[in-house]
Structure formats: structure tokens, C-alpha cells
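Data follows
____________
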Amino acid sequence: MAQNSAKKLDLLGMLPEEISELMARRGLEAYRSAQVTEWLYQHNARSLDAMTNLPKRLRDELAEELFITDIRALKVQVSQRDRTKKILFELSDGMTVETVLMPEAGHSTVCVSTQVGCAFGCVFCASGAGGLARNLSTGEIVDQARWAQYDPDAGRLTNIVLMGMGEPLANYEATAKAVRIFIHERCFALGKRRVTISTAGYAPGIRRLADDDLPVRLALSLHATDNKTRSRLMPINRKYPLEETLDACRLLARNRRTPLTIEYMLMRDVNDSLPEAAKLAKISLSLDAKVNLIECNPVLSGRFAAPPRERILRFQATLRNAGVLAFIRRSRGLDVEGACGQLRNAGLVADSG
């Protein structure tokens, strides 16, 4: 585990250019910063001492000023249905977050968390059950992806989705920095359309993203098409109503032409009627957004259930007949509670097997 210190700088929270500046201030040759960056992202170095082509004296000097975040896997659960892995990570202060790694044929996607818990308390999501403990640092976000990058069972990491625990746009600075590291050619080198931020509708963050040059996709967790229903499901809607959230999304689309996806979890007899589908189609077309339909997954409250399959298909058909690109997203990791809405701060566990 990392020996975190408020007086030290985290290398995993730095872009390669910042590492270069730091080395230059110390009077070191430019190739030293390239070595450090390579150790972090090509050799998965989890301490400065592991960087064996740096002189021992230099490593010791750097360790007085720098550290590398090293989150620890406490528990790994592997789905018997689809090989999805849910990992419970312990942070340097003993708090925990969950991360989901989804392998495909020869490649993988990782769903990372940005906060310990969540402040917004969506009633169908387990992540906010205990409220928000704290934001994650950039290094803690990045290290979840580093674990996925070097997982021996996953194949090449091709996609990162910031859809785990927490609201990424409420932890904007750390989230944005992590995204820049994910796409940097000397770090993860992911394509600009290979990183997605999910938001519950945090309008100030969406507007900030609209003014930023951050090359990232946005996924809006909508889940209802009117304020009354959405406020009941997602308390954030009481502060940032649907109209304000959609206006922020339109600003983003206008300023950045950022691809937008609407995530819509179908809950039986709550938001799954055909009139709801028609209203969702109107919203989607106004934002030029595609729609991912998600079957409601079991969560702690047990208050909601998925509609029958035929009803889901009729809902999708209504969207498609209106000209909307609409897909039914396959839930991954259901048998290990790793699907959408199921991640939570599980606390420290005695059995890490």
C-alpha cells in the first residue's frame, strides 16, 4: 500500500509533462522523466524502488518528495456467467471502493469509481446507501485502471468508463486529470472516444465540461422523463431539475459536439410505459443522443424490478420507430453484484480470498 503523505506528490496524479518539469527542476536529464513514466505505465511499477534503471541514490532522493499510489485488492469476485471481475480495493486510509473489469474476446473494459460512496442517493443504486465519505485522488482513480491494464485474464484494456461509485463531475479536477492520463499517448494511450464519464445530471459539472477541452464521452443517467418521477428516483433532480440538466447537455453538444449517451434503467410500472418511451425519444432526438436501456438490477432495497422482456422490447421498438438509436445493454457481473447500480462501499472484510 502507498505510504501517502500530504507533503509528497503522487506520480500517478501527474501527466508526463508534469513529471518532466519536476525532473528538470531537480536538474535531471530529460530521459529520466521518460524512464519514470515508462515504469509507471509499461512496467506497472508500484514503488520508486522498483525503478531499477534509476540509480539507488536518485530513487532514495525522489522518494523523499514523491510516492506512487498503490491501492490494494482486498477481494476479487469472478462471475461464473461472463467472467466479469468485481474488485474490492482498500485505499491508503483504510476506506474501500469497488471496481468492475469486463473482459471480452481479446480486450476489456474497466468501470472505475471516483468517490468513496455517493452523495446523491439514487434510490435504485447501492453506492449512495451510506452517503459520501470522500473524493478519490487522481492517483486512486488511475490505479484502478492500472490494475485492469495488467490483469492477466482480461486482454488489452481498450475502454474506461467512469461509472463506478460516486458522481465523477462532482470530483471534477481529479476526474478530468485522470481522463487526460488515460488518453495520453505515453500513459494508457486510449482513443478519445474510448473514455466515458457518467453523470447523474450534475448540471454545474456538465456546464464546466462544455467549457473544457476534455476529449471524453458523456453518459447521462436519466431514468425518467418528468421531474416528479425523476425527483423520486434521483434526489439530485430536486436541485438540478430535468430542464436545467438537459440545457447543460445541449450546451455541451453545441460547444464541444461531444457524443452523448442516455442511460435509462427500466423499472417495472415506474418508467417503462410506451408514453414514457415516446417522451424519451423526444428528449433523445433533441440531444442527438443514443439510448442504452438497462434492465433494473437487484439492489439492497429490493424496491424495483425489471419489466418483462417483451415490454422492454416494445419500449425499444418505440424509440427506434421514432428514429432513436436504442440498445438494450447487457448487464455484466450480476452474480457477483457488479452490475449497474450494485456497487457499494462494502467496508473492510476479513476474508480477502
User: Anything to note?
Assistant: Residues 341-345, 347-353 have pLDDT under 50 and may be disordered. The first helix runs from residue 16 to 25.
